[in-house]
Amino acid sequence: MPFCYTRTIHFPDTDAAGVVFFANYLAIAHEAYEEALGTAGMKLHSFFSDTGTVVPIAKSEAEYLRPLVCGDKLRVTVTPTVLTPHSFELRYEFFRIGPTEKLAARIRTEHVCIASATRERHPFPATLAEWLKNG
Amino acid sequence: MPFCYTRTIHFPDTDAAGVVFFANYLAIAHEAYEEALGTAGMKLHSFFSDTGTVVPIAKSEAEYLRPLVCGDKLRVTVTPTVLTPHSFELRYEFFRIGPTEKLAARIRTEHVCIASATRERHPFPATLAEWLKNG
Amino acid sequence: MPFCYTRTIHFPDTDAAGVVFFANYLAIAHEAYEEALGTAGMKLHSFFSDTGTVVPIAKSEAEYLRPLVCGDKLRVTVTPTVLTPHSFELRYEFFRIGPTEKLAARIRTEHVCIASATRERHPFPATLAEWLKNG
Amino acid sequence: MPFCYTRTIHFPDTDAAGVVFFANYLAIAHEAYEEALGTAGMKLHSFFSDTGTVVPIAKSEAEYLRPLVCGDKLRVTVTPTVLTPHSFELRYEFFRIGPTEKLAARIRTEHVCIASATRERHPFPATLAEWLKNG
Predict the structure, then answer these.
(1) How far is it, in rounded angstroms, from Cα C63 to Cα C66?
(2) Separation CA C103–CA C68 (nearest Å)
(3) Considering the entire predicted model, what is its pTM?
(4) pLDDT digits (tens, 9 = 90+) for B86-133
(5) N or C, which end of chain D is more exposed by having fewer CB within 10 Å?
(6) Chain C within 8 Å of D27 (Cβ-Cβ)?
């Protein structure tokens, strides 16, 4: 079972078209990623200094299937997959919770692990490697 | 007892100083307001069209007492007070949850009720008036 | 020559990693799109009511090639291409301006034109069609 | 003459009420502050490491006088005043540019200078002190 994050849509997520601004879907996906890491015992705040590595996002892709409005409740699933010894992808599905649950968006982010000091590719720290395996 | 909203600090809330960007405290306060209204049965998405009124924010004030970092858990209280027949204030206190709970910020917003059509001051719709009384 | 938008990176664009948050590249791309439309005489604020159509974003893709920090100056190019009678894509390139200009990101958004009333696919309004042709 | 920053309102600044979200006025004020510092030769990106001090915002106040919509052009003035040997305030006025220029908002932020290492109050670095004097 993938990790699930639930989230209510709020006013600051929306734009003048009355719906969630397309860039904010990515911010919500990142929140889900942080919650998944947190549940696995990793803290993003100290991850960088604790491990000497950073995992910047190299690519993102999004399909926006349904508009989301203020008050909508979301269930976001997060599924990690290792791509190479230094990179992984996360796939997110956004479901709008309701009498009939609807798929509202599909997001994909690609992350590369690098050493903070040298900016060169670096194997995953142990806790991250374990989460990627079991995620 | 005031309404309580709990919220985790995420990466999109922060800035390059490593802490929550000062403007984002106000966005989090607005989320707490929306949740308080939602709990009282009001939906911000349809409030404007349902009631023919809008309640724009005329003033805001904030005291930033402690920095907040990614992963911090907040408890935000919301306390409404009627100011005039057409305006009210909301006071928010941000507590950082932890072994010793700390007051992290105090926010105040002032809202004016106006008719959407004429943009003139207008009494509160009934559901809003009731929430302001019982808040 | 594609349309060019110049933009300075500011604190609210950044996150606790000290660089521009990945979702904010998409927000900056949208700013460039708005400026391109504005230069062609279209106003996003009244476009929807003026034409009875909306052009929501159906897909986005981004490649993040270099981190951007507070104070960086960007040149963003916008190149539109018609895909079908009801859809178009925009390709953006982000260049960090400096002694040696560097490509910092590539973004792509896909937009679908629909009638506001029926939510069904609709041909492009004339001004939009012209911009897409000459873009 | 106070420092002037010009800025166009874009979609990401707005919310589902169709106007600029109240918290985003503060983000725009911060952009104006950064531009004022940059014009005076200070770079926010390296200010902290260059000087060993930080100047977090301790308070903010805002009066929202007129709604702002996508495409509006703003002129934002920034006026600094020293309050104590370790603190200063910035006053911002937002003017909506147009046939008749209108005051759209008044913002005030209060900043405290502290040493990064000890988090104790610290005199202003020289370049900042000079800007505050000549603002």
Answers:
(1) 9
(2) 11
(3) 0.97
(4) 999 999 999 999 999 999 999 999 999 999 999 999 999 999 999 999
(5) N
(6) yes
